[in-house]
Amino acid sequence: MTSPAYEHDIRFPANMDPNKRYPVIFTLHGKGSNERNMFGLVEPLADEFIIVGIRGNLTLGAGFQYYELHSLGNPVRLMFNQAIQQLQRFIPYATEKYPIDAARRYLLGFSQGAILSMTLALTMGDQLKGIVALNGYVPEFVKAEYPLKSVQDVSMFISHGEFDGVFPVRIGHETAKYFEPLTSKLTFKLYPIDHAVSEENQQDFVHWLKKDAAVE
Questions:
Q1: Number of Cα atoms under 13 Å in the Cβ half of residue 90
Q2: What is the overall mean pLDDT for the chain?
């Protein structure tokens, strides 16, 4: 087992059964944030899921990022490719290291983390059970040039802010339109918010994750 490329924060259910493997949520934060900022979003799930907060390995101000940008919505391709490759290695690494149920692996990302989550769904296919992508998009070079796998069996909760000033709401609609023919397991929702996650948004994806992972 090689050492991971990413620092990570792991939270286990309080009353863990040592003989049981648990569903997992890997969280991927936004640009300039960190893994601890994501925990509040998934804290209501901490009794049923192992939570692995993955910290971007590049510093940005007081926070972190997974890759740099040429401009807004335009990732540095080489760095983006490297992040995807490293995350594809990290997920099996963590699955082997911790008591994780490999059949119930979820990614939950915001902004830059949502972009990575959707790209990983397309490159890992049914190695993932599902993703939650909050206010992100799929880069055009991923759609056009990456070797993509079927996401027919990948559950997806994709949401976007109607008043998102970073990625306009049309991007959310375009993302949903892209995935609609690829999977029958798509939930797409809009919320009356900016580039953020509202309480209603959180309640909806928490309920969706519990139902999809059959922990309700």
A1: 22
A2: 96
